[in-house]
Amino acid sequence: MTDQTTRFNLAMRVLHWSMALLIFAMIFAGLTMVRALEPWQLTLLGLHKAFGMLALLLLLLRFLIRIKSPTPSLPSGMSTIQVKLAKLSHWLLYVLMLIIPTSGLLMQYYAARPIVVLDLFTIPAAMVPHIEYFAVFREGHGLAVLLLIAVLAVHIGAALYHHFIRKDGVLKSML
Question: For the stretch 31-63, what's the b/e string if a residue is b when 16 or more beta carbons lie within 10 angstroms of its beta carbon?
Answer without folding.
Answer: eebeeeeeeeeeeebeebbbbbbbbbebbeebe
